[in-house]
Amino acid sequence: MDAADRSHQHQHQPTPSVIELFTPKLVTVLRDGYDRTKLQADIIAGLTVAIVALPLSMAIAIASGVSPDKGLFTAIVGGFIVSALGGSRFQIGGPAGAFIVLVAATVARHGVDGLILATMMSGAFLIVTGYLRLGTYIKFIPYPVTVGFTSGIAVIIFASQLKELFGLSLAGKEPGDLLPKLAALGAAAGTVNLAAVVISLLTVGSIIAIRRWRPSLPGMLIAVCLASLAAALLGLPVETLGTRFGGIPRTLPVPSLPAFTPELAIAVLPDAVSFALLGAIESLLSAVVADGMTGRRHRSNCELVAQGFANIGSALFGGICVTGTIARTATNVRAGAYSPISGMLHSAFLLVFMLVAAPLASYIPLAALAGVLAVVSYNMVEKEAFRALIRSSRGDAVVLLVTFALVIFRDLTEGIVVGFALGAILFIDRMAKNVALEMHDPFAVDDVADTADGDHADYNVRSGTDPDTVVYRLTGAFFFGAASTVGTILDRIADQRRNFILDCSAVPLLDSTAANVIEATARKAEQAGVRFFIAGASPSVRRMLPNHGVRPPHVAYAATIADAKALLRSPAVKKARQR
Hints:
The chain is mainly α. The chain has 27 helices and seven strands. The protein has helices at 3-11, 18-21, 25-32, 36-63, 68-85, 100-131, 135-138, 143-160, 162-166, 178-187, 194-213, 219-234, 241-245, 262-294, 300-316, 326-334, 341-361, 366-380, 383-392, 394-409, 412-433, 445-451, 480-493, 512-527, 539-547, 561-568, 571-578; strands spanning 93-94, 323-324, 436-439, 469-475, 499-506, 531-535, 556-558.
């Protein structure tokens, strides 16, 4: 099969139906066959991920300004729904470090009731986004933007844990913004609790040591257990989950609707939109990572719908925002998961842990959970990618650093929007520079052969060119970014010869601005008595141009330059030229 046949076959592949696009991967797996061996693999993977998620879910909830049980509710309810309804085989849903900044800010402005309402609203937005099939466009977020906002979030998470890492006592409420926060923490430097520092160092050191020498073990859980044991046995004066929150409940709460008033809904609307935007980006990025590790392909819009229902479910049980989590999803893949059942089992195991071990959670030091998040924030910074983007080009470096700075000092959503806008402008500039309009002279080797018989005396046989004809070749995507530059050149040459051929065979796409430029060129050529030919235009270009007035008799279309020259040598055209 040659390239043309393969291309033809690819173009005529059946488009997936709506049912296929929104069929959860769980249904696909069960339909294809699921046996005991696959279940055993999913049980092991689910248990492994649950052990990782247990301390992490509580730590993220505390850092977000809510009680630790809400993190567990989120992982249990939201994580189960993500796996049951999602478009990825391996996605693990739950509370994510990327949301800490947004959730904490929402709690500070609107309280826990406002947070839960915003979470439910964001779920509705994600469902609508998925069913409108907008998930395909989320992947257009430029890479420097994702690296910048991820790194910026990591810095903010680490800064938010300094108080617990050092056991500081602040005179008032801890500020949310970075610079005022650092100033307040600096003013409280004299209240450092050495016991908290020891617990923090023990936790971080244990995680690093286990990851280096026994990476297959659940380092975070082991580190938290060691820190809790040390604090209890030595009687260290540190705050624990029990002293601050009274521990965690042993059952799930009864589902209930969040407090709702029109005024509160309007107030939390910007937060809900931010939750939905970040949740879509984070979950689809996590699914892409899983695809890269396994060779599978996720269904992006189905995944967004599942994330939406998961956020609504989490809010009904008093949980916080749910999204796909990259680290836990990667752990799921490495643990040998086969299907979404591993994610559902991860939630079930977390529920069992909460029912059985809830009293023991009271002994967990907050400094230990802060140490866990310190490691998480360090791992979130894509250090190699950051350095590579700084060195790659000035444009990518600007997008990266602007996004990074805005996330840290202004707002996460603002950082993403501005970074995306800068990335789009950079892309437009690069694409515009790749558009070229060059004179095609001499025509080609076969042109000389065509004129060697002497029938066309107006051709220069030695050079293979026609002094009355000029040919220009346009290459690259011709769009508004290049319209001004190309238009200026076309305007200069539109009336230089009696015949003007514009070769568009290397133009993959053309927008309305570019079509108007060609229409203006054709109009000027017609006024000057110049015959204007467009050669080699693709079907999509041929469809666009007539809609903007570029049609016969103002221009003539030809499949190739040779066909255009053949038209020029036709008797009717020759008589017109002689006149």
